[in-house]
C-alpha cells in the first residue's frame, strides 16, 4: 500500500499494523529497538517515495527492555524526524496496559510540511495532550489508531472534536478491522466574529 502512494507528500499508517494490535502474546517477541528492521524498512520506503512517512506505531523495546507503543515520523530523506511513545495505554479488555510502558511527553517537530505533532489511538480521549501539542506549535496533528469498529462513531467524534477545540488540522488513520483502513481528516472552520 505504501508503494501505491507515489507522489504523496505524507503517508500515514495505522497503529501497530505490524504485528496487529491484538497480537498481545507476540508483543515481547516482535518488539524491536527504534533502529530495528521495521523502522529501517520504513525509512527506505520514505526515501524511495521522497515523502514524509508517519509509519503508524511500532512495538519498541527500549534500552532497559521496556516495551512501548511508539509512533515514528520519517522525513523524505529517510531520517527519523520524531517519535512519540503513547501516553494513555488502553486497558479495557486489552493487555496493552499490562504489557507496555506509557510514554511521558508530547512534542511537535518542524518538517517540510509545517510543524507536526502526533498521538496514538486512545489518546484521543484526553484533550489536554492536544493542547500541549498546540502550545508546542503544532499546526497539524497526526493520529494513528487501531480503534475498534464497535466504537468507530466515537473515533470520528473525537477526531473532529480535537481539531475544532485546538483549531488544528487533524489527520487520523485507523485500522478498524484487519485489512480495512479508514482515514479521517478534520479541518476546523475559521472563527467568525
TrEMBL record:
Residues 1-193 form the CN hydrolase domain. InterPro entries: C-N_Hydrolase (IPR003010), C-N_Hydrolase_sf (IPR036526), UPF0012_CS (IPR001110). It holds the Pfam family CN_hydrolase. PROSITE patterns: CN_HYDROLASE, UPF0012. It comes from the Bacteria. Belongs to the carbon-nitrogen hydrolase superfamily. NIT1/NIT2 family. This is Putative amidase. It comes from Blastococcus saxobsidens (strain DD2).
